[in-house]
Every structure is written in structure tokens, then in C-alpha cells.
# Entry
Amino acid sequence: MSKGKYYITTAIAYTSGKPHIGNSYEIVLADSIARFKRKEGYDVFFQTGTDEHGQKIELKAEEAGITPKEFVDNVAGTIKDLWNLMDTSYDNFIRTTDEQHEKQVQKIFKKLYDQGDIYKGAYEGLYCTPCESFWTESQLVDGKCPDCGREVKPAKEEAYFFKMSKYADRLIEHINTHPEFIQPVSRKNEMMNNFLLPGLQDLCVSRTSFKWGIPVDFDDRHVIYVWLDALTNYITGIGYDTDGNSTEQYQKLWPADLHLIGKDIIRFHTIYWPIFLMALGEPLPKQVFGHPWLLQGDGKMSKSKGNVIYADDLVDFFGVDAVRYFVLHEMPFENDGVISWELLVERLNSDLANTLGNLVNRTISMSNKYFDGVVTDTGVSADVDADLKQVVTETRDKVCAKMEVLRVADALTEIFALFKRCNKYIDETEPWVLAKSEESKDRLATVLYNLVDSIVTGASLLEPFMPKTAERIVAQLNTSLRAFEECDKAGQYPSGNRVTDKPEILFARLDVKEVVEKAEAMFEARRAADTATTEPVAAAEEAVIDIEKKAEISYEDFDKLQFQVGEIIACEEVKKSKKLLCSQVKVGSEVKQIVSGIKAHYTPEEMVGKKVMVLVNLKPATLAGIVSEGMLLCAEDAEGKLALMTPEKEMPAGAEIC
RNA sequence: GGCGAGAUAGCUCAGUUGGCUAGAGCACACGGUUCAUACCCGUGGUGUCGGGGGUUCGAAUCCCUUUCUCGCUACCA
# Structure
């Protein structure tokens, strides 16, 4: 009966806040695949969970005046509620603060250290606190964190490193010989070209700069840094043990059949994770699928705009299954999908209400009207029946084929083609005409029987994607969902069965305008509430920015720097670069060419005519092939916005700044 | 700058190894129908298949070139 085990995971959600619709997409996708595989006869284990350590959480907890553990308990609870609301059938919800997980991570760290894959070194570089990342000078963007654009601080930290390069060749070999390993394939090239082929850097796997993490048990000033902690959830959650005492469950389930993750963390799952596993001597997961994101069409989603869509908002508007249908249907395989209130209403009305809901409703209504709800196969068939039955019974295999290659949206389309065929069948057979004459009553009965039977098959195939709806349909037809094995056969519905006499509307049609207005009102209310609670805090934060203090310098040090007022007389974009502007700056009688990374903040036109503060005696450097003979000084806020320093009163170009 | 992906009907996209009048869904229009949630069924388009050039009997599909968009990555005083 069982086709074997199938172990599927999602990424574990970071517990720094409530996940938006993009994150919720992943769990629904994983759930649909898991449910589908179960119906196909696999012994499925579906794991999800939360990633709960790190400095960001430590800081957020501090702001909230609670312990990190209290903080993550809250957020993990919210996430779990949301996943449950979305009707996800996970078998295990792992938290990286689980005792079992923490203990194993410590053991894994020790083992890797003992066998020489992890060594103690020092990390010297520029550190971005919010991102918890070290960067080299060359990685910075505008001298700022390339991830978030915020200020980085020079820092030196004793740290443990993992020797990535040691396993690089084996990994390259594996990727080349397992073309299905990284999905979609376009991501494979990115990993090869950008990381593997140029040569892997060793990975820093510990931190001393914060405490909220799993301590290195033989050196407790260190906590184990994110990836070794987070990625290992996939094995600790099912009972891995470093000492060889892994559980039976682990023996059965590992290696995972599918890691479902967002495309943003493909690198960690296709490079670091396989290498960790090689070091542990464990087999690699069979497939990593980096799914695209669902983006909001109507302008960028941002908390400050107050237009972030959360899954539970959508559920309030449309119901769980409509939201599941939407995210699954609208998500293409390789490119990002778009979500908007208008699109949602369109899908709901045309697919769910019209095609599916109305079909079930009209079928039940006719059964009641003509036969008092009793559905009988009288065996009076006609030519049209054959085509209906063929379409219906062939759907299962088509759906399976699509799911085999993870084309979930296409699988749904196949199921809806079945329902559309049913609607067409009604027009072809014209039951209302058959009902007029007593002689055609038996034919009419069979027509309705065929419809009910087909709908049950459709509902059964739909179950993994829209479980509640599938149940509601068969409940109204007074039967139960079919096993997949039965879905390729017609005539399974018990003849003589009686359907409900009170059909309920599965999906009510909605008016686009009303929905958009309601959504806007909701956002408005949220913005107002947000302003009320966060304004005072935000204002206080904006007033003062603290940055890392540098070592004291002498006057001589300062005197080495020469600042003058410069006037920008010409400015153009540096074509080869995304961030640079090249300005001709008049300083006294000479004109200096200065390249600055401020394209994102000023247009060349804006620059011309400005009087600015220039560091003039900086050693010239070549940037993007252009010589830069100084530096324009800017102020910068916490979000990385730049403002040029200009003299407060009119000053001639060349005036000394001292 | 390097690597990669993409540009097809108003919108979202399919188009296998080049082959007959280029497709689907939605939207729109018209016709049919009335069991049903103003629903369902049918019919319909003028798409320069991003631009230009080439190979070929024949190209959306192969080659070259060009423009634009996007992803990853590098430089960024």
C-alpha cells in the first residue's frame, strides 16, 4: 500500500515578527504537496517550525521589556496559530529553542570541531548589528551593509570557522551529477558561478557579541551562529544523534525528499547545508526547491505604508480555502507572482464561485427539484456521457504528473478543467428539457448521477489543496471523499443515495469595489493604530542616533585632513555602476573629479550647483574605472538616507573648512 | 563589470526536437440557455510573437546584433 516515505520540510520562520502573506505562501505550498503525497499513498512526514535565536531577537525582546524566551514564545505562538488557521497538516513543529535541538546542535558543533572541520580564528571586519553579519570592506555598499543599507561598525571578534573549501569539490561533483538537486535549475547556475567556482570562503559559525543563542559547550563565551543552528533542525527534528544513536524515525526519514524554501536562502541550503551534512557523514537531501515570492502588486508592501497583507486578513475577507487556492494558483513556477485585492476577487468569483460553487449548487438543486434529492444510476446513457467520463477519469493522472514536477498551479488548473467539463455536460444534456417528459426521466436520473459522481471525483482530487471545501462538497452530496485509487473510475457514487435538500453556497461572489474599499479602511485603521502606539518611540529614536565610538585622535591626526567647500559644476552617472555619480567639483581654482556612491539619493541634475563639503587631500582612487580625487561628505540617518553637507551661509568654492 | 533569466492578444501566461490559418485563462462583445450564486454553454480579435540582420523550402522556436526588464554577484572614498 505505502509507496515509501516522503519527508518534506519548509524553512523555519524567524521569530522576529508576524509573517506576511509571502511567508504564508510557503507553508500552504508545502502543505498541499504533503497532503497530495499522502493521498498518493506515501508515508509522509511534514516538518515546519521556527528559528528563534539571534541578536535581533535579543534586541527586540529588550525593547519590549521581556526576556528573549518570552518574546519568541509569543511570536512562535502567533506563527503556529497562523499555520493552523491556514489548515496546514504538519507532523512536527520544531523550535530551535527546543531542548532536544539545542543539545544536538552542541554535539554537532563539538564533533565538527573535534574532527578539525571547525577551527578557532578571529573575525575582523565590519559588522552590521541588525543583520548580524560581518562584511569585508569590499562587500560594503556605500560603506554600508549590503543587506540593509545601514551603518556597519568595525569589529574584531574571536570566532569559530567552518572549513567550507574542504568539501567544495565534492559538492560541485554532487550538483553536477544530480541535476534535480537544485530547483528551479536557473538557481543552480547562480550558485555555481557566484560561489562554488570562484572558491568558497570559510564560514563563521559562532558569535561572542550576543548571548541569545545555543552556547558552544566547551567555550561558553561563544554562541553558535545561525546556520549551524537553524539548518540542522531538519535532522534534529526527526531524531538525529551525533553519537550514532539516531532514532528509528531518523533512519527511516533521512535524507529529506524535499526542502521547500524561499529563493532568498537557496545559497544556504544548496551550499552550506550539504557541506555540513558531508562533514557529519550523512546523505544529502534529494531536492531543494527555491520557490519564488508572492509580491503585492499595488505598490511595494511596507510596514510604514501600513499596507502589508497578512494571511489572516485575507482569510477574514475570503475564507481559508479561497486564500489557499489563490496563493497556489497565482504562483508561477519560476517567476514571482502578484497578489492584489482585485486579482483575488477575480479568481474567487470566476473560478470558485462561478465554475465550482455554482456547479455544485445547480446539480444539487436539480436533484432535489426532479427527484427529491435521490440520485440514481438508471443506466440510460447517451454518447455525451463517454466524453464526460473520459475527461473526469483521466484527470487524476494529469494532476499527478503535474505534482510530480511540483507544478502545483498547473495541477489545480487540471482539476478545474474537470469542473468546467461538468458545466458543459449540463448544457449538452439539458436536464430541464428532459424533466418535461416522463419518458426521459430515467435518462435525467442518469445525467444527474453522472454529475454527482464526477463532482465527487473532482472534490477528492481537490482535497490536498482545499481540504475544507472538498469536505463541504461531499458532505452536501452525502458521501465521503474518494481515495486516489478510485478516482480513475466512473460510477462509484452509491446509486439511490440522497443529497442534501439545503445546498449551501460554497463561495459567495464578491464585489471588487466593496472589497477594495473595505481593505483600504482596514489599512487606514491599522495605520492610525500604528501611529498611536509607535509615534512617540519613533520620534525619540529619530532625534538621536548613536554610532560606534572610534578611538580618540590627536589634533595632529585631525589636522592631516583638509576640508574645503566645493561647488559641483557638472555631474553624470557612472554608467558601469549602479550606485555611483561622477561629479566635477570646483574647489578654489581647480576642478576635482569625485566619484560618490549616492546615485540612489541624488540625481545628477540635482547635484549641479550645490556647494558641498569636500575632503580634498584624500589619496586618489579608481572606482569603476574612473579616478576619484576626493570625497563628498554626507550625513546619514538610521535608514541609510544620505544628505550632502552644505555650508549654512553662502561661501565661495574653495573656502576652507576648519 | 561578470553570470543567468525574460520580452508572445487589454491582463496573466503556454508554446515540446524549427513545419500547415500562433494558443489557454481572465476581461470584453455578440448569440444560446434558464437547473443554478445576473450563472452556464457557444462564437469572436486587428496579436509587427521587443527591434534589426542571418541560416532555411519554411523560425515565436536556431545564429548574430541591439533595446528594455528582472535575478544573483562584484566594484562603489
About this structure: Residues 534-549 of chain A have pLDDT under 50 and may be disordered. The first strand of chain A starts at residue 5 and ends at 10. Residues 512-543 of chain A form the longest helix (32 residues). The CA atoms of residues 129 and 179 of chain A lie 38 Å apart.
